[in-house]
Amino acid sequence: MLANTKNAPAVENSPAQNKEAVNKKNVYKVEQLNLWYGKDQALINVNMDIPENEVTAIIGPSGCGKSTFIKTLNRMTEMIPIVKTNGSIYYRNENIFNKKYQVEYLRTKVGMVFQKPNPFPKSIYENVVYGPKIHGIKDKKVLDEVVEKSLKGAALWDEVKDRLKENAMGLSGGQQQRLCIARCLAIEPDVILMDEPTSALDPISTLKIEELVQDLKKDYSIVIVTHNMQQAGRISDKTAFFLNGEVIEYDDTATIFSSPQDKRTEDYISGRFG
Ligand SMILES: Nc1ncnc2c1ncn2[C@@H]1O[C@H](COP(=O)(O)OP(=O)(O)OP(=O)(O)O)[C@@H](O)[C@H]1O
């Protein structure tokens, strides 16, 4: 058992502890996934079921493969020419590595939010309608509704509803990140991947995003990479600890932080390395 170490988050109120023991569906099933950048193997035999309508946190030291892993979930890694993968990733029971699988479809179902807010240098309104417009929606009334719904979903509507035509670059960093979440919600995804979404933000903006993530899991399944173990403890239901490309331990967040099975997990979460 872990003592109260300085880096181990408090998990008394972890959602996993209050959750009813129900058999949740899995949105992803990852089986024996290996990935190489050229000759260097970055993911080694990863097996993981990712539950629906929960927050799954990916933690581990720098370079252990966290970003690489979540980028495989929407096949973003294949955009890098030297990448080779084997194994399977089933999204809603279909192997996304299957030759006939439509990656465009996957990207409409799986949205992604990056570490640094990356709004387009366009108006707030145009940022949100970007995806829907690409998918052929032209009706102004429909687009207006998408904008309101998405910005409300990202807890940004009240702050920007009177300045939708203003350039998004004028928003604060935290607002820009919520705008990127709104842009992601506008395509009505099923899953949201978040790669360290708060690491560039101040504590108050971080708290807002954390609250938002908790709220969003009612409607979406969320996978979040975080360096911040307190954050993983506060907002996730499940946590996977990666080390050198391998999943060392994957369990309910409360278990990972209170009684990890593997000494390496315990050492990491108690701040002994990483
Ligand atoms: N485009 C790339 N080309 C070659 N190697 C890469 C590339 N991207 C990542 N890697 C390597 O793959 C390994 C895993 O990197 P990855 O970015 O997935 O780790 P991470 O856990 O997300 O790290 P961090 O916490 O620092 O963001 C590292 O050794 C990294 O150098």
Instruction: List cofactors, ions and other ligands.
Output: adenosine-5'-triphosphate
Can you tell me the CATH architecture of the domain at 53-63 and 101-269? 3-Layer(aba) Sandwich
CATH topology of the domain at 53-63 and 101-269: Rossmann fold
Structural class comes to alpha/beta
Query: What strand line-up does the widest sheet have?
Result: 6-7-8-3-9-10
CATH homolog superfamily of the domain at 53-63 and 101-269: P-loop containing nucleotide triphosphate hydrolases
| N→C terminal distance | 20 Å
Low-confidence stretches: 1-21
CATH class of the domain at 53-63 and 101-269: Alpha Beta
Radius of gyration over all CA atoms, rounded: 19 Å
Task: Write down the overall geometry.
Answer: globular
Strand content: 15-25%
| DSSP strand count | 10
Strand count, sense and barrel status of the largest sheet are: 6 strands, mixed
Integer average pLDDT: 91
Order of helices and strands: HEEEHEEHEHHHHEHEHEEHH
Write the layout of secondary structure elements.
Layout lengths: L14 H4 L7 E12 L2 E12 L3 E5 L6 H8 L9 E9 L2 E2 L7 H7 E4 L10 H11 L5 H14 L3 H4 L12 H13 L5 E5 L7 H14 L4 E5 L3 H7 L2 E6 L2 E7 H6 L4 H7 L5
Parallel strand pairs: 3-8, 3-9, 6-7, 7-8
Antiparallel strand pairs: 1-2, 1-4, 4-5, 9-10
Helix pairs in contact: 4-5, 4-7, 5-7, 7-8
This protein binds adenosine-5'-triphosphate.
Protein name: Phosphate ABC transporter ATP-binding protein, PhoT family
InterPro entries: AAA+_ATPase, ABC_transporter-like_ATP-bd, ABC_transporter-like_CS, P-loop_NTPase, PstB-like
GO cellular component, one term: plasma membrane
